[in-house]
Design goal:
This protein has about 100 residues and is of the alpha+beta class. It has 1 helix and 7 strands, in the order αβββββββ. Strand 1 and strand 2 form a beta hairpin. The chain starts with a helix and ends with a strand.
């Protein structure tokens, strides 16, 4: 019984630490990004992102190709767009990266 209590207490302590880290993460890095998509295009832009100057859209197309948009300056109001239509395909899913 004592071993079970010890394991339970360790589990609660680990969960508390994990929740503390998750709660602290948003405050430690300011990020304000948005994205847009239709059947063929994925676009992304950021008004701020701590430590980064540029954002780039990446479109993963239904035909297996990955298409990259041009780099957009963070805070400029511009979005980066990646077009699967340039490969004759529809968009499967999209994401963005920052630099």
């Amino acid at each position: 019984m004592r071993k079970i209590r010890t394991l339970a207490a360790a589990g609660v302590a680990a969960a508390t630490l994990m929740l503390g880290v998750v709660a602290a993460s948003p405050a430690s890095a300011a990020q304000a990004c948005s994205h847009w998509q239709d059947d063929y295009t994925y676009g992304a832009g950021c008004s701020e992102f701590d430590g980064a100057k540029y954002v780039q859209a990446m479109a993963h197309c239904a035909n297996g190709e990955t298409v990259y948009g041009s780099w957009a300056v963070i805070g400029s109001g511009n979005l980066s767009y990646a077009y699967c239509s340039s490969w004759g395909s529809k968009l499967s899913w999209g994401e963005y990266r920052v630099m």
